[in-house]
């Protein structure tokens, strides 16, 4: 019997249609509208707007503020991703064994991830400003005059630190899941062959948990590029403009400066950046995945 | 007879439909701190006016985003708020012209610049508010200093406090908006400021050429040299705590810090005086302006009902309780008030007409927060006394694009 291709296509469409409709209305449509607004000088309120071509994009090239925001964001992403990716793996190696204390520790490390970044930001502002100096006073350590959020360099460090504290647990859980699927007999046999710990990790463990690395790297990259809540709550982009990441800048353009056009253009640039970077990353890490 | 039947049918129809359907007035309120008072007002009005229901939405920082979303969705509330000036321009098509309305007849003079657009009164101000130097009365008494009325006296008071071992200034410079209020206060003192704004918008006038702006940098330097360490670390909570605990004698702030300071230390005695920019006593006026103005939705279906509501608020004792409960400084002649220490000090300046406008609201969108950021970069040492003012002018131009 000949398969009726047309009816198969119709069947597919029927099943996909509800989701496709929702996706179009809530994702595709706003996305294309954003692209459209990025070509205008819309202020976000008034119904009248003019098309200005690629002016919003071109002016970014000469905007020194935007350049520093861009470099800050890229710096944050690099440091945050590498730090969390590496530490999460080490932590997972240590906590991989399913003993009871390890299970409790895993939960403890995962807990910060449940907090909303906004709450985490406010809690840590309080820690840096009130708890730390008071602890210093009680213990007579020279902590009283340390104000992490007052200086651009330490504020950057604080931002990376709190972000690390929040995402470490999540990354660790993914790694632990990956490690648990490892075939223990493979590890045992290479151990009998006399392979050391480093060799086992480098040539057996790492290639086999590559899927976990792919997931973690993807998650971390996209999370870090879109840093917003924590940025707003912890440093507010300051002191000065020193810790303003791209998403916060987009928000301020659109909603505070009444420059929805320019904000949309910046949002499109951020989208392209995340899109290209994660696509390249997925290509590279996927190609290194091996099956057991 | 026919006519009578017709009229009574119409009357019956109208009363039935009025009974069947309550009128709902959607009220958008900025400033979460008055949420309780708004809810109390809503209850009081409902008790006296069956058939009309006020549906309040009280929002904090997200208010402006929400208002923007409502406008974009063509779903504006019957009563909404702006902070006047350029924000009215943005929402002018939604705001009812109140110029000839009796509700606007008693608005105080000092409130009018904020709510006027092209000579028309576009809103009903909620309250007046003042910004200047909040000071600790006990520490001033301890050091034996009086309220400074000129720039030189301010320098002297700072030095006298310091010589008595008191930290003169508490600097809340993590908050860019606070520094923006300092910049804005200076802008408000530029002679003929509305003319200046028009010229600045055309690129024909510069902030850097204004004497008051140059003095503003001196004021910033004075506070930095005589304040707590790490001023960029301390925002509202930290600064209010330092003030409340008497760890500093003066801070640049508005009357709105009163509750926060009192909640940390109920015994703190604070007052407010105008920040002196020059050595002329007559020039030393309080930076005071409308803090939030109500707008009645133009072309809304409830215009009449909303006007009745405001008439009740402004002209009946039960409505006026709203203004007593909020502790608002009245923006209307003859409206009763219940003020705290800071409000009373500000009201004295307002009654005497010794006020200048809040310049931070006449600049381009977000000039307040962004100009504060420019001052933060000065504090970080990225700009100097000359370049910081040029950076302000560059910002003004950039925000206009």
Protein model, in words:
The complex is a heterodimer of chains A (292) and B (401). By secondary structure, chain A is an all-alpha fold. Chain A has a single domain (54-287), classed as MetI-like fold (Orthogonal Bundle). Chain A has helices at residues 5-37, 55-61, 64-95, 100-110, 117-139, 152-180, 184-192, 197-208, 210-225, 229-234, 246-256, 260-287. Chain A starts with a helix and ends in a 5-residue tail after the last helix. The relative contact order of chain A is 0.13. The mean pLDDT of chain A is 89. Chain B is an alpha/beta fold. Chain B has two domains: 2-127 and 291-338, Periplasmic binding protein-like II (D-Maltodextrin-Binding Protein, domain 2, 3-Layer(aba) Sandwich), CATH 3.40.190.10; 129-289 and 364-400, D-Maltodextrin-Binding Protein, domain 2 (3-Layer(aba) Sandwich), CATH 3.40.190. In chain B, the strands form four sheets. In chain B, strands 7, 8, 9, 10, 11 and 13 form a six-stranded mixed beta sheet that branches. In chain B, strands 3-12-6 form a three-stranded antiparallel beta sheet. In chain B, strands 1-2 form a two-stranded parallel ribbon. In chain B, strand 4 (116-117) and strand 5 form a beta hairpin. In chain B, helix 11 (236-244) packs across helix 12 (258-264) and helix 16 (367-379) runs antiparallel to helix 17. Residues 13-20 of chain B have low confidence and may be disordered. The chains are: A mainly alpha (292), B alpha/beta (401). The interface between A and B is medium-sized, with 28 and 28 residues.
Record the SSE blueprint:
The complex is a heterodimer of chains A (292) and B (401).
Chain A: H1 5-37, H2 55-61, H3 64-95, H4 100-110, H5 117-139, H6 152-180, H7 184-192, H8 197-208, H9 210-225, H10 229-234, H11 246-256, H12 260-287
Chain B: H1 2-20, E1 23-30, H2 35-48, E2 52-59, H3 63-72, E3 79-82, H4 86-90, H5 112-115, E4 116-117, E5 120-121, E6 124-125, E7 128-136, H6 137-143, H7 151-163, E8 169-170, H8 176-188, H9 193-201, H10 211-225, H11 236-244, E9 250-254, H12 258-264, E10 270-273, E11 286-290, E12 293-296, H13 303-315, H14 317-326, H15 341-351, E13 355-356, H16 367-379, H17 387-400
Parallel strand pairs in B: 1-2, 8-9, 11-13
Antiparallel strand pairs in B: 3-12, 4-5, 6-12, 7-9, 7-10, 7-11
Helix pairs in contact in B: 2-14, 8-10, 8-16, 11-12, 13-14, 16-17
């Amino acid at each position: 019997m000949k398969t009726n291709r047309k009816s198969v296509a119709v069947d597919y469409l029927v099943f996909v249609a509800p989701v496709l409709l929702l996706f179009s209305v809530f994702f595709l449509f706003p996305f294309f509208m954003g692209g459209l607004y990025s070509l205008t000088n819309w202020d976000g309120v008034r119904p009248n707007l003019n098309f200005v071509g690629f002016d919003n994009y071109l002016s970014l090239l000469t905007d020194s503020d935007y350049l520093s925001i861009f470099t800050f964001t890229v710096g944050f992403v690099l440091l945050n991703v590498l730090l969390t990716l590496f530490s999460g793996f080490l932590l997972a190696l240590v906590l991989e064994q399913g003993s009871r204390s390890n299970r409790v520790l895993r939960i403890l490390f995962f807990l910060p991830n449940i907090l909303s970044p906004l709450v985490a930001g406010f809690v840590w502002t309080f820690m840096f400003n009130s708890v730390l100096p008071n602890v210093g006073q009680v213990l007579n350590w020279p902590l009283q005059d340390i104000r992490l959020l007052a200086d651009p360099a330490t504020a950057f460090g604080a931002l990376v630190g709190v972000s690390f504290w929040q995402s470490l647990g999540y990354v660790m859980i993914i790694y632990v899941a990956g490690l648990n699927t490892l075939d223990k007999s493979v590890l045992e046999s290479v151990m009998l062959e006399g392979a050391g710990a480093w060799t086992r990790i480098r040539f057996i463990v790492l290639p086999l948990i590559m899927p976990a690395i792919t997931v973690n790297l993807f998650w971390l990259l996209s999370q870090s590029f879109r840093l917003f809540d924590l940025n707003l709550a912890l440093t507010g982009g300051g002191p000065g403009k020193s810790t303003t990441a791209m998403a916060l800048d987009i928000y301020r353009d659109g909603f505070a400066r009444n420059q929805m056009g320019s904000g949309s253009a910046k949002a499109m640039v951020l989208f392209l950046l995340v899109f290209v970077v994660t696509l390249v990353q997925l290509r590279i890490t996927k190609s290194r995945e091996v099956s057991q | 007879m026919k006519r009578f039947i017709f009229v009574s049918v119409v009357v019956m129809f109208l009363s039935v439909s009025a009974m069947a359907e309550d009128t709902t007035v959607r009220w958008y309120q900025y400033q979460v701190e008055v949420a309780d008072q708004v809810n109390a007002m809503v209850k009081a009005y409902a008790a006296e006016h069956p058939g009309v229901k006020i549906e309040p939405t009280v929002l904090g920082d997200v208010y402006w985003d929400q208002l923007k979303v409502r406008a974009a969705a063509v779903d504006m509330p019957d009563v909404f708020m702006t902070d006047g000036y350029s924000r009215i321009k943005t929402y002018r098509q939604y705001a009812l012209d109140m110029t000839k309305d009796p509700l606007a007849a008693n608005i105080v003079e000092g409130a009018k610049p904020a709510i006027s657009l092209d000579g028309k009164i576009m809103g009903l101000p909620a309250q007046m508010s003042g910004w200047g130097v909040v000071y600790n009365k006990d520490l001033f008494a301890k050091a034996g200093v009086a309220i400074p009325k000129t720039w030189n006296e301010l320098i002297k008071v700072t030095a006298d406090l310091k010589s008595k071992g008191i930290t003169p200034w508490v600097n809340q410079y993590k908050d860019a908006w606070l520094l923006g209020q300092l910049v804005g206060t200076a802008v408000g003192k530029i002679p003929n400021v509305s003319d200046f704004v028009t010229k600045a918008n055309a690129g024909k006038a510069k902030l850097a050429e204004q004497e008051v702006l140059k003095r503003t940098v001196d004021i910033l330097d004075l506070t930095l040299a005589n304040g707590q360490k790490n001023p960029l670390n301390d925002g509202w909570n930290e600064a209010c705590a330092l003030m409340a605990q008497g760890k500093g004698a003066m801070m640049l702030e508005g009357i709105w810090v009163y509750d926060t300071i009192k909640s940390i230390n109920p015994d703190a005695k604070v007052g407010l005086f105008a920040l002196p920019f020059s050595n002329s006593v007559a020039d030393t006026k309080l930076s005071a302006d409308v803090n939030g103005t109500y707008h009645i939705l133009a072309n809304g279906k409830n215009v009449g009902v909303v006007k009745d509501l405001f008439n009740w608020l402004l002209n009946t004792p039960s409505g006026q309780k709203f203004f007593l409960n909020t502790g608002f400084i009245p923006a209307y002649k003859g409206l009763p008030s219940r003020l705290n220490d800071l409000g009373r000090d500000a009201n004295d300046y307002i009654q005497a007409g010794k006020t200048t406008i809040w310049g931070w609201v006449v600049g381009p969108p977000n000039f307040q927060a962004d100009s504060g950021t420019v001052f933060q970069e000065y504090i970080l040492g990225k700009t100097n006394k000359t370049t910081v003012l040029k950076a302000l002018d560059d910002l003004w131009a950039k925000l206009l694009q």
